[in-house]
Amino acid sequence: MTARLIFPIMGLTKIRLIVKRHYKWLVELVGTELTLEVNEDEFVLDQT
After folding, report:
1. Domain span at residue 15?
2. How far apart are CA 32 and CA 9, in angstroms?
3. How far apart are CA 47 and CA 34, in angstroms?
4. Which residue, 14, 18, 20, 21, is CA-closest to 46?
5. Closest CA to 39 of 18, 23, 16, 19
6. Which of 2, 22, 32, 47 has an alpha carbon 20 to 30 Å from 14's alpha carbon atom?
7. Please, what is the end-to-end C-alpha distance for the chain in angstroms?
8. pLDDT tens for residues 1-41?
9. 48 belongs to a structural domain
10. For the whole model, what pTM was predicted?
11. Contact 9/22 with Cβ under 8 angstroms?
12. 4-13: per-residue pLDDT in tens?
């Protein structure tokens, strides 16, 4: 599932949701190999 960050990180906003951990999600920045944790209120889901 993909989503968009509300505030860009390194100029990127597209993320891939990997797994939910309590109140945060482990995500991957699309186009990089970076993973990070973000809160649910920091992104919006892409329309499919």
Report:
1. 2-27+34-40
2. 11
3. 23
4. 14
5. 23
6. 22
7. 9
8. 999 999 999 999 999 999 999 889 999 999 999 999 999 99
9. no
10. 0.88
11. no
12. 999 999 999 9
Number of domains in the chain: 1
Given a contact cutoff of 8 angstroms between Cβ atoms, the answer to whether 1 and 20 are in contact is no
Strand partners, 14: 4
Q: Label each residue of 1-48 as H, E or C.
A: CEEEEEEEECCEEEEEEEEEECCEEEEEECCCCCEEEEEHHHEEECCC
Asked whether residue 11 is assigned to any structural domain, the reply reads: yes
